[in-house]
Amino acid sequence: MPRLTGFTVLFLLILTAAPLPARAADDAASAVANRQAAEFFETKVRPIFARHCFECHSDETGADNGELVLETLAGISKGGSRGAVLVPKEPARSLLITAVEYDDVDLQMPPEGKMPEGDIEVLRQWVKMGGVLPEYTDKPRAAAERIDLEAGRQFWSLKPLQDVPVPDASPHNDRVRRPVDAFILARLQSEGLAPSPDADRRTLIRRVTFDLIGLPPTPEEVAAFLADDSPDAFERLVDRLLDSPHYGERWGRFWLDLARYTDRTASWLTGTGQAWHYRDWVVDAFNRNLPYDEFVRLQLAADLTDDTDPHDLAALGFLGLSPTYWKEPRLAPPLIRTIVADEWDERVDVVTRTFLGLTVACARCHDHKFDPISVEDYYSLAGVFASTQFADRPLLPDAQAQQVLAAHRQVARLEEQIKKAKDKKSEEVVQLRQQIEEIRNATPGYDAPQAHVVKDAAVYVLPDGPDRTKLDYRDGEPRDLPVFKRGNPENTSPQPVPRGFPAVLSQAEPVRFEQGSGRRELVDALFGDAAALTARVFVNRVWEQHFGKGLVTTPSNFGLQGDPPSHPELLEWLAREFLRRGWDIHWLHREIVLSSTYRQTSADNEDGLRVDPDNRLLWRMNRRRLEVEMWRDAMLAVSGELDATVGGPAVKLETDANRRRTIYGEVDRRDLNRMLRMFDFPEATGHSPKRVHTSTPLQQLFVLNSPFVQNRAGAIVNRVRDAGDLPAQVVTCYRLLFAREPTEQELALAESFLTGSTDAETRTQWKLYVHTLLGTNEFLFVD
Questions:
Q1: What gap in Å lies between CA 455 and CA 194, rounded to an integer?
Q2: Rounded to whole angstroms, what are the CA distances from 600 to 87, 175, 185, 603, 615?
Q3: Residue of 745, 754, 739 whose CA lies nearest to 204
Q4: H or E segment at 483?
Q5: In this structure, is the dihedral angle defined by the CA atoms of residues 23, 24, 27 and 29, taken in order, positive or negative?
Q6: pLDDT tens digits for 433-467?
Q7: Is the pLDDT of residue 662 over 90?
Q8: Is the peptide bond before 110 cis (omega within 30 degrees of 0)?
Q9: Of 694, 679, 736, which is closest to residue 712 (Cα–Cα)?
Q10: Cα-Cα end-to-end distance for the chain
Q11: What angle is formed at CA 225 by the lines to CA 223 and CA 227, rounded to 5 degrees?
Q12: Which one, of 693, 548, 539, lies nearest residue 615 by Cα?
């Protein structure tokens, strides 16, 4: 075979195996993006329309105001007498943006005054996203029509858990390793389909190792698994992975997407940069196999239980790291009240979508258009977060923490005096610094780590003189909120709504929260009256992580506009068993990954493609693309450079010296790292229920030109140098990167490319060769 040039091998390998997902994957990504944009409309855009526009541009009033209706999909799509109201993805050409920006003296809306810049920016962002609107499949509930709670409780996700028997899987009972299989096989049988055979053992160990710890298996681990002929070899492999400290890192990152984790909080907050305590707590909680009910309780109410371990107070970062906005005292009280209400709204949205899979925030301005959630339900929950404020506290027992906080306040006052002193070397300043040192030395735990947490405290926005506004925080005091009519804090109902739980989820009388903020009672309701829904939502999230697609494909929307489950009986059985087994997350993993369904090959077959091209019935395993964290971590692992240290402060990803797992890379919600952004890492500004996988030319260019990828290739070359002769080195490469042996054709191609050069040329050729392997589909995907 003639010797191949570097240019030729790049085309043979990269262009034939580049990380370009199939069209179906792109279509799926587009569908997810559209759904997220539609949710953005409901939770962000519709409240702005309600505050500023619906009075003149609703179904009732639009005909008299330029024929423009902003209250319905049909109305926005149609536009008004001036034509289309928006041009998707082009804010500068959209009449809507022109009107609200007040740039055209003949077109200024709302006419009574320009809306806040923050609201205008939300509208610009929505138009940039394509101006996507929900494609409602049901007729929206009329404004005057009240919610029928009993009818609402008959919806599948809002019913109590059903006692579902495990079905007979004939004629495939020999494929039933776990009850999960019986449900899948029975459904396949009903559609005239058969399951796929097991994947080979190399594929299986690579699949489950990435799934459970987010790293590739080592060649030694693969060899040991292949040599283990015992019937429980795979089961013991799974147990080893679940016991690995890296399990918590992989599954902790999954949770941080939901929690909109950021390392950089708002610059004006004290203690910024301490967010990593929450991230490390999440990792540790998964590694401890903390039961899910306790996992949630600590994140919402760790401070409200006397026996909480101080270490577990870091869990409050779920709320303590919520997005917050600067409240400029020179702004008028109505504007500040809107900003504060937006923050409460974000908490309602994240908590209800994460734990209940319900879009309760869509009821901010009016009863939910489809789900049995009233506007009163919304404000009963918003009151919980109006009674909860940010705090920083040492991870110490409460009494000691209070002493440390008091000492910090003393030091802050002394430092302020030093700052004001004109002569920094005066005797007075020397004495002040001495006092600071004495306070530090006299306070045990003064330098203990501090976490971003929350505490019970109500906030009120009040005038502070003729042209200023102040925030009045009242520690330990709860607050019930009135209904903000059309979402407007300046137009409220006469009476406040008691804090409580959505009525449709209350099994008897409405659940009211009367203890402090109500956060502890909220947890009790999540795992009491709403336990069935809470279990369904989490089980579905874990299933989605293992199969790439949930039994419910809308993991944070189990309402009427969400997708119904593909296997409702299986979801019921898993949720009931999960609850019955004490919310044991390890049990849930084992039940899924030890099944024959999980072990199937990902290869297509003609019958499956004809009957179920999207593989909703799971006649095969789904081929999945690695998330950017796993991809980066895998490159470090196979190059032998991975720093496996667990926990600690965030490190910037931009530096090549950072060899730690990507979960420890700094996430800045205002300035996301370029590599993360390029490879579909979610924005840290909001709850992200699932990753969107895109395929772009920029990703290809990154693989080809990134110093990070190039340097990993060089490190792999150094690692395989001592493996033996050239064929042995190539074999070692394939074992490291792909957990398999090269084929004869692959070995011949490598030998043709790598032989016949000088030592210097060989080094360059080897680096180019390994760089090419790192850019292949096989490295980026898991079969």
A1: 55
A2: 46, 10, 12, 9, 12
A3: 739
A4: strand 481-484
A5: negative
A6: 888 888 888 888 788 888 889 999 999 999 998 88
A7: yes
A8: yes
A9: 736
A10: 32
A11: 70
A12: 548
- Contact (CB, 8 A) for 347 and 526: no
Cβ atoms of 647 and 631 within 8 Å: the answer is no
For residue 393, the SS3 value is strand
CA distance 382 to 388: 10
State how far the Cα of 739 lies from the Cα of 706, in Å rounded to an integer: 24
Query: What's the length of the chain?
Result: 783
What single-letter amino acid sits at 309? D
CA-based torsion, 41, 44, 46, 48: positive or negative = negative
As separate numbers, helices (DSSP H) first and strands (DSSP E) second, the chain gives 33, 7
Write the DSSP symbol of residue 466: S
DSSP helix/strand/coil, 575: helix
One DSSP character per residue, 663-675 reads GGB--BTTS--HH
CB 526 within 8 A of CB 296: yes
> Tokens representing 565?
């489950």
Q: What element of type H or E holds 185? A: helix 179-190
Check if the beta carbon of residue 581 is closer than 8 Å to that of residue 587: yes
CA distances from 274 to 270, 317, 410, 457, 499 (A): 10, 10, 21, 22, 31
Largest distance between two CA atoms of the chain: 91
Q: Are 712 and 639 in contact (CB under 8 A)?
A: yes
For residues 717 and 762, what is the distance between their CA atoms, to the nearest angstrom?
A: 11
CA distances from 140 to 144, 560, 561 (A): 11, 11, 11
Strand 492-497, strand 481-484: pairing: antiparallel
For 494-536, what is each residue's pLDDT tens digit?
Answer: 999 999 999 999 988 888 999 999 999 999 999 999 999 999 9
* pLDDT level of residue 7 (50, 70, 90 thresholds): very low
Strand partners, 471: 461
Cα 213 to Cα 59, 249, 254: the distances in Å are 53, 7, 11
Are the CB atoms for 691 and 549 separated by under 8 Å? Answer: no
**Which pair of tokens denotes residue 287?**
């590694």
Matching residue, tokens 């149609």: 78
